[in-house]
Amino acid sequence: MSEGTLYDKVWDQHKVTTLPNGQDQLFVGLHLIHEVTSPQAFGMLQERGLEVARPDLTHATVDHIVPTADQSRPYEEDAAERMMAELEENVRDAGIEFSDPTSGNQGIVHVIGPEQGITQPGKTIVCGDSHTSTHGAFGALAFGIGTSQIRDVLATQTIAMEKQKVRRIEITGELEEGVEAKDIILEIIRRLGTEGGVGYVYEYAGETIENLGMEGRMSICNMSIEGGARAGYVQPDETTYEWMQETDYFQDHSEEFDQLKPYWESIRSEADAEYDDVVEIDAGELDPVVTWGTTPGQGIGIDDPIPAPEDLPEAKQDTARRAQKHMRVEPGETMNGYDVDVAFLGSCTNARLPDLRRAARIVKGRQVADDVRAFVVPGSQRVQEAARQEGLKDVFEEAGFEWRNAGCSMCLGMNEDQLEGDEACASSSNRNFVGRQGSKDGRTVLMNPRMVAAAAINGEVSDVREMNEVSLA
Amino acid sequence: MSSEDSSGDATEDIPAVEYVSGSGVPIRGNDIDTDQIIPARFMKVVTFDGLGQFSFFDLRFDDDDEPKEHPMNEERFQDASVMVVNDNFGCGSSREHAPQALMRWGIDAFVGEGFAEIFAGNCLALGMPTVTADHESINDLQQWVEDNPDGDIDVDVAAETVTYGGNEISVSVDRAQREALVEGNWDTTALMKANEQSIQATADSLPYL
Ligand code: SF4
């Protein structure tokens, strides 16, 4: 078992007791909720005559179903309107703060928590959403939970969990221009497998991670779950503290910043911490990674050949065959030149300001290919507004991108933004599962945001390193 | 597990699940994700009622909603209550809609090579075991189910065995899952609510509250 890691320390700090079933009961420092997974939990609570224990530690947003084009109420789609109305009623009755679309603070749940400063190092954070692992970028212990567990948290502000093993993933080497945090995590998942992290929490460390900004760290932690790990984290450091200091919360409570910093420092993994496993990865050799298949583990460098199923481990062969049939790719080909119909720049993985900035530098002065639908869906209203003020909105629109309002959008196709038929999509999101983007025949190619920009311009998956970036100034 | 069981009283008795028995349905393939089990477009609902019919919808129905070839569309598997799956079943999103849909379709237990963690946790919260065995044992069991669609599979959570047609295989059940199911304390709300004082004490000890 691990010892002396951030995971061990934050766990112990929040442990209430050990339950008769052997699980630990953990206190939850922040409970984030959204419209898709919470209504049933509020229903269960009501059935039992229970109340929300700590509305003050609960925060709501709407993201999955929210339309990104016309947001006037009632929403055009009845089902979406019903879910929104239900959420509004639940948060009103319980007295839960709600970053709703009229607040200017609305956005994807994993974008707004860090933005508002309620995501903090050393907190336990849960949400009925598997990408809650994102918040681990701040040195929080953050994991996705199911609806029955949401009920537990609403009713008690605690959760029953078993402690897991800790794998340290040490990343060294300097990233080549055009290669990003997204490529690192796609590479990790390719190497360790989509189930390689089951039973583990991932600690991302090493100089490459230390040199990343918070957004890059979030992209990596975000996709921990795609590697099977329910949580992933990065140790808090000066980069983290700088971010925290600039959030509303600590702008308003600067004295708390000084009080909390020693706690944040104290939870860092010890130099002699014990890990259950250690993996080392040299990121200096990475090319931009794209997926050829229908799981996030099926990634390759942009110029690498698509593997033959029979060359893969036996357990992966069948999945690979089905994936290649679905994607209509052949072993030996590369993904460079794969035709795309749609370019989606969005999601909790890659729709923060620096992501949009980098993509805009590729897009500026160029035009989206004729037969491509391209759109930008900022991760939050704040990102949207900041990007607008910087002129990014204009850059994208002049190039032929649609500029939308914040939400999950085509990451999962629960609103109007969906693939049609067998369209292929260059996507900055995190999942390429069959049907994920709203059409069961749709084809998703995951990549970093600059690569999405390049695909939009060229009408095919292409190497962004071969395109000049334009200064935005 | 009827809804009356869970109404009103927070300290109600939760039934123990030591044993699940019933005929099987084989779902083959590794890495079957929750987007397959229940596509997101069927999640625009505020209750789980009625999700059963949408289980594996895109694999079971074509564009015109006509049934395709799929075990869950076959007459002989309609009464199945034990789903036999391969590795990393239920990966992807945390949606409890996935096990809820399968439960409402009629599944009470899963036997497989491996399960994604959140999926297994969600199953536990519904009192559904997710027990695991090696690749070969699962393959054999899937084949047997194909040949014996009416045959009973007995999943013994306490003994960690699965028996079918005169065969017995030993399976692994996660320790906490076994305790919770066998002792009937898999519904953690009441269990945890009872610790109110310790919860408060922990909250008081946190530097950030
Ligand atoms: S953007 Fe995608 S992955 Fe992120 S929370 Fe929304 S649906 Fe989930």
Topology (SSEs and partners):
The complex is a heterodimer of chains A (473) and B (209).
Chain A: H1 6-14, E1 15-18, E2 24-27, E3 30-33, H2 39-47, E4 58-61, H3 78-94, E5 97-99, H4 109-116, E6 124-127, E7 141-144, H5 147-156, E8 158-161, E9 165-172, H6 181-192, E10 200-205, H7 207-210, H8 214-222, E11 231-233, H9 238-246, H10 248-252, H11 254-266, E12 277-282, E13 289-291, E14 299-301, H12 314-327, E15 342-345, H13 353-363, E16 373-376, H14 381-389, H15 392-399, E17 402-403, E18 424-427, E19 443-446, H16 449-458
Parallel strand pairs in A: 3-4, 3-6, 4-5, 6-7, 9-10, 9-12, 10-11, 15-16, 15-18, 16-17, 18-19
Antiparallel strand pairs in A: 1-2, 2-8, 13-14
Helix pairs in contact in A: 2-5, 6-8, 13-15, 13-16
Chain B: E1 19-27, H1 34-37, H2 57-60, E2 82-85, H3 97-105, E3 109-112, H4 117-125, E4 130-132, H5 135-147, E5 152-156, E6 161-164, E7 167-170, H6 175-183, H7 188-193, H8 196-205
Parallel strand pairs in B: 1-2, 2-3, 3-4
Antiparallel strand pairs in B: 1-5, 5-6, 6-7
The structure holds iron/sulfur cluster.
Iron/sulfur cluster binds next to loops of chain A.
Q: Tell me about the biggest sheet of chain A?
A: 5 strands, parallel
Beta fraction of chain B: 15-25%
Between the first and last Cα atoms of chain A, what is the distance in angstroms?
52 Å
What general form of chain A does the structure show? Answer: globular
What's the alpha carbon Rg of chain A, rounded to whole Å? 21 Å
Helical content band of chain B: 25-40%
- Count of extended strands of chain B: 7
Largest protein interface, residues of each chain: A-B, 81 and 68 residues
The chain-level mean pLDDT of chain A equals 97
Mean pLDDT of chain B: 92
Strand order in the largest sheet of chain A: 5-4-3-6-7
Basic shape of chain B: globular
The number of helical elements of chain B comes to: 8
Annotated CATH topology of chain B: Aconitase, domain 4
Order of helical and strand elements of chain B? EHHEHEHEHEEEHHH
Question: What CATH first level of chain B would be assigned?
Answer: Alpha Beta
Question: Fraction of residues of chain A in helices?
Answer: 25-40%
Bound small molecules, deduplicated = iron/sulfur cluster
